[in-house]
């Protein structure tokens, strides 16, 4: 893929992101890295991908005079999908992101049944589905096709391993390397999935 | 499209929707009708489309012992996208839904700049983008291609009409008719958009 020359990461971010700007990658969460990458992709017309808002059950709202509504009682709800979706070159993109501090594996307990179900449903509709896994202490990032995660999940339910080893992941996933424009070039891995390289 | 024979709308709904079940279409909001249709499409493997949660800025959360977290202060945030997206037969689907009690037109004030921008960005990525418009008093529903809405919006900014007439909509949109399985068969209109009939 050719990425058009653009502004530096920070000025690009400042225009669109209302979150505080974090200078330097160290200490950024995977979510922040993906959000910044999505800003970059959107600003450069390379893809339109967003994190979905956290679902909230609102119980009580106050409407004070002359100021905006305040939610006074609400609860977190269980999401029914993955966290990220969008469109890239006509393809539907859907993924979940997980980070782990383990060094040699990622336990399946990081994933939830509803995420597996949702990924399978999207695969059935010919979506491009995967998970981005960050090994925090190793500073390594992988794009693992949803089909491999789902297969592993099904085997685990029948008594198989409950944790995906780093070796399994290096075999099945596409490794991506953190950079600047974007921080996480995961659409390059997407393109490989689309071309059927993996 | 062929819809497989399924369970009645109500039993289908009861399995997946935690909202109270509303018997009878009269009085259902457009949002409820679309959500029920999305449940139907998902349960019949015809498409995976969800309404996105409302974005909330959380300020204060209490964690009472032995019970779940309670959000005690939060604010509604401006959404940056449309309300609905998902995947259908490999296509990325993105749309907004609006209802009006007007009988002969729908004012552009129902739409927001960020929705127009988002629809254009998704069109640029070859998404299937549209708005579903419900004329409540007429009980008529239309699937209007995003490109027609965007063109109208641009003309309005240059001094053109500020309201889309029913005649404009009947010319440009695909009319859909409320039924039972699903309540709003809007993917049939999507299919027409994909085939380029409209």
TrEMBL record, chains A, B:
| Pfam families to which the protein is assigned, alphabetical | RecU (PF03838)
Using the UniProt record, give the first listed, main subcellular location. cytoplasm
Identify the EC number(s).
3.1.21.10
Per its Swiss-Prot or TrEMBL entry, what cofactor is needed? Answer: Mg(2+)
Free-text remark on how the cofactor is bound: Binds 1 Mg(2+) ion per subunit.
UniProt entry keywords in alphabetical sequence: Cytoplasm, DNA damage, DNA recombination, DNA repair, Endonuclease, Hydrolase, Magnesium, Metal-binding, Nuclease
**Marked site: Transition state stabilizer:** 98
**Which cellular compartments is it found in?**
Cytoplasm
Supply one GO molecular-function term: crossover junction DNA endonuclease activity
List the catalysed reactions: Endonucleolytic cleavage at a junction such as a reciprocal single-stranded crossover between two homologous DNA duplexes (Holliday junction)
Instruction: List, alphabetically, the InterPro entries matched.
Output: Resolv_RecU, Restrct_endonuc-II-like, tRNA_endonuc-like_dom_sf
| Sequence positions that bind Mg(2+) | 81, 83, 96, 115
Q: Which domain of life is it from?
A: Bacteria
Physiological role: Endonuclease that resolves Holliday junction intermediates in genetic recombination. Cleaves mobile four-strand junctions by introducing symmetrical nicks in paired strands. Promotes annealing of linear ssDNA with homologous dsDNA. Required for DNA repair, homologous recombination and chromosome segregation.
Which family does the entry's similarity section mention?
Belongs to the RecU family.
Task: Write the protein's name.
Answer: Holliday junction resolvase RecU
Q: Which organism was this protein described from?
A: Bombilactobacillus thymidiniphilus
Highest classification ranks of the organism = Bacteria, Bacillati, Bacillota, Bacilli, Lactobacillales
């Amino acid at each position: 893929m050719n990425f058009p020359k653009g502004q530096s990461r920070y000025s690009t971010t400042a225009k669109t992101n209302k979150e505080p700007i974090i200078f330097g990658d160290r200490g950024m969460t995977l979510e922040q890295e993906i959000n910044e990458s999505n800003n970059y992709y959107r600003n450069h017309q390379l893809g339109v991908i967003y994190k979905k808002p956290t679902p909230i059950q609102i119980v009580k709202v106050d409407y004070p005079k002359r100021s905006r509504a305040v939610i006074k009682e609400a609860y977190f709800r269980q999401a029914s999908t993955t966290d990220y979706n969008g469109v890239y070159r006509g393809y539907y993109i859907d993924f979940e992101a997980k980070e782990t501090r383990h060094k040699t594996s990622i336990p399946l307990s990081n994933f939830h049944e509803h995420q597996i179900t949702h990924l399978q449903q999207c695969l059935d509709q010919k979506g491009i589905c995967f998970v981005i896994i960050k090994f925090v202490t190793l500073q390594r990032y992988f794009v693992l096709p949803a089909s491999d995660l789902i297969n592993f999940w099904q085997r685990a339910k029948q008594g198989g391993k409950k944790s995906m080893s780093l070796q399994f992941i290096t075999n099945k996933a596409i490794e991506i390397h953190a950079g600047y424009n974007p921080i996480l070039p995961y659409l390059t891995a997407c393109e490989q999935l689309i071309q059927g390289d993996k």
